[in-house]
Amino acid sequence: QVQLVESGGGLVQAGGSLRLSCAASGRTFSSYAMGWFRQAPGKDREFVADISWGGGNSYYTDSVKGRFTISRNNARNTVYLQMNSLKPEDTAVYYCAARRSSLFEYEYWGQGTQVTVSS
Protein backbone atom coordinates (compact mmCIF):
# COMPACT_ATOMS: atom_id res chain seq x y z
CA GLN A 1 0.00 0.00 0.00
CA VAL A 2 1.28 3.44 -0.93
CA GLN A 3 -0.22 6.72 0.20
CA LEU A 4 0.55 9.85 -1.79
CA VAL A 5 0.20 13.45 -0.66
CA GLU A 6 0.73 16.33 -3.06
CA SER A 7 1.71 19.86 -2.09
CA GLY A 8 3.05 23.03 -3.63
CA GLY A 9 0.08 24.15 -5.68
CA GLY A 10 -1.15 27.72 -5.68
CA LEU A 11 -1.87 30.83 -7.71
CA VAL A 12 0.83 32.16 -10.01
CA GLN A 13 0.96 34.63 -12.87
CA ALA A 14 1.61 33.49 -16.42
CA GLY A 15 5.32 33.04 -16.98
CA GLY A 16 5.91 32.13 -13.36
CA SER A 17 7.06 28.90 -11.75
CA LEU A 18 5.87 26.39 -9.17
CA ARG A 19 7.33 23.21 -7.80
CA LEU A 20 4.94 20.46 -6.83
CA SER A 21 5.93 17.74 -4.41
CA CYS A 22 4.42 14.34 -3.81
CA ALA A 23 5.37 12.58 -0.60
CA ALA A 24 4.88 8.82 -0.48
CA SER A 25 4.46 6.57 2.51
CA GLY A 26 5.86 3.08 2.68
CA ARG A 27 9.24 1.46 2.36
CA THR A 28 8.95 0.44 -1.27
CA PHE A 29 8.80 3.86 -2.92
CA SER A 30 11.90 3.19 -4.97
CA SER A 31 10.24 0.20 -6.62
CA TYR A 32 7.52 2.39 -8.15
CA ALA A 33 7.62 4.55 -11.20
CA MET A 34 5.81 7.81 -10.55
CA GLY A 35 3.61 9.98 -12.67
CA TRP A 36 1.95 13.37 -12.65
CA PHE A 37 -1.47 13.96 -14.15
CA ARG A 38 -3.77 16.96 -14.28
CA GLN A 39 -7.44 17.64 -14.71
CA ALA A 40 -8.84 20.98 -15.74
CA PRO A 41 -12.49 21.91 -15.12
CA GLY A 42 -14.76 20.17 -17.59
CA LYS A 43 -11.94 18.14 -19.09
CA ASP A 44 -10.65 14.61 -18.76
CA ARG A 45 -7.63 13.84 -16.66
CA GLU A 46 -4.49 13.93 -18.76
CA PHE A 47 -0.99 12.56 -18.42
CA VAL A 48 1.71 15.15 -17.72
CA ALA A 49 4.95 13.33 -16.89
CA ASP A 50 6.39 10.07 -15.64
CA ILE A 51 9.69 9.00 -14.13
CA SER A 52 11.12 5.52 -13.77
CA TRP A 53 11.84 3.97 -10.40
CA GLY A 54 15.52 4.89 -10.53
CA GLY A 55 14.99 8.26 -12.18
CA GLY A 56 16.89 7.35 -15.31
CA ASN A 57 13.97 7.65 -17.69
CA SER A 58 11.32 10.33 -17.89
CA TYR A 59 8.43 11.05 -20.23
CA TYR A 60 6.38 14.16 -20.89
CA THR A 61 3.30 15.12 -22.76
CA ASP A 62 4.16 17.40 -25.66
CA SER A 63 2.50 20.48 -24.21
CA VAL A 64 4.87 20.63 -21.24
CA LYS A 65 8.15 19.52 -22.83
CA GLY A 66 10.86 22.07 -22.20
CA ARG A 67 8.86 23.75 -19.43
CA PHE A 68 8.24 21.02 -16.84
CA THR A 69 10.77 18.69 -15.21
CA ILE A 70 9.96 15.60 -13.20
CA SER A 71 12.46 14.33 -10.65
CA ARG A 72 12.56 12.14 -7.58
CA ASN A 73 14.47 11.65 -4.36
CA ASN A 74 14.12 8.05 -3.25
CA ALA A 75 15.83 8.74 0.07
CA ARG A 76 13.02 11.19 0.85
CA ASN A 77 10.23 9.17 -0.78
CA THR A 78 9.32 12.22 -2.82
CA VAL A 79 8.70 13.03 -6.46
CA TYR A 80 8.71 16.57 -7.80
CA LEU A 81 7.32 18.46 -10.74
CA GLN A 82 9.13 21.69 -11.50
CA MET A 83 6.89 23.86 -13.66
CA ASN A 84 8.35 26.88 -15.43
CA SER A 85 6.95 29.34 -17.95
CA LEU A 86 3.47 28.54 -16.76
CA LYS A 87 0.51 29.32 -18.98
CA PRO A 88 -3.16 29.83 -18.14
CA GLU A 89 -3.91 26.54 -19.88
CA ASP A 90 -1.80 24.77 -17.25
CA THR A 91 -4.51 25.56 -14.71
CA ALA A 92 -5.76 22.29 -13.26
CA VAL A 93 -5.75 19.99 -10.28
CA TYR A 94 -2.48 18.08 -10.38
CA TYR A 95 -2.28 14.50 -9.14
CA CYS A 96 0.66 12.21 -8.55
CA ALA A 97 0.36 8.48 -9.06
CA ALA A 98 2.47 5.36 -8.56
CA ARG A 99 2.84 2.30 -10.77
CA ARG A 100 4.80 -0.92 -10.85
CA SER A 101 3.36 -1.89 -14.21
CA SER A 102 5.46 -1.40 -17.31
CA LEU A 103 2.22 -0.64 -19.13
CA PHE A 104 1.77 2.75 -17.45
CA GLU A 105 -1.11 1.45 -15.34
CA TYR A 106 -1.12 3.42 -12.09
CA GLU A 107 -2.15 1.73 -8.87
CA TYR A 108 -2.14 4.54 -6.35
CA TRP A 109 -3.25 8.15 -6.55
CA GLY A 110 -2.97 11.23 -4.41
CA GLN A 111 -5.75 13.68 -3.61
CA GLY A 112 -4.46 16.43 -5.86
CA THR A 113 -3.25 20.00 -5.53
CA GLN A 114 -4.72 23.00 -7.33
CA VAL A 115 -2.59 25.04 -9.70
CA THR A 116 -4.06 28.26 -11.04
CA VAL A 117 -2.22 30.38 -13.58
CA SER A 118 -3.57 33.87 -14.13
CA SER A 119 -3.11 35.79 -17.37
Describe it.
This protein is mainly beta. The chain has no helices and 11 strands. It has strands at 4-7, 10-13, 18-24, 33-39, 46-51, 58-60, 68-73, 78-83, 92-99, 108-109, 113-118. The strands form 2 sheets. Strands 2, 4, 5, 6, 9, 10 and 11 form a 7-stranded mixed β-sheet that branches. A 4-stranded antiparallel β-sheet has the order 1-3-8-7, with no helix packed on it. The N and C termini lie far apart (40 Å).
What is the makeup of the main sheet? 7 strands, mixed
Helix content bin: under 10%
Order of helices and strands: EEEEEEEEEEE
- Number of E strands: 11
* SSE class: mainly beta
Question: How many helices?
Answer: 0
Q: What's the overall geometry?
A: globular
Round the Cα radius of gyration to an integer and report it: 13 Å
Beta-strand percentage range = over 45%
Oligomer: single chain
Which regions are unreliable across 5 or more consecutive residues at pLDDT < 50?
none
Task: Look at the structure and give the mean pLDDT.
Answer: 96
CA-CA gap between termini: 40 Å
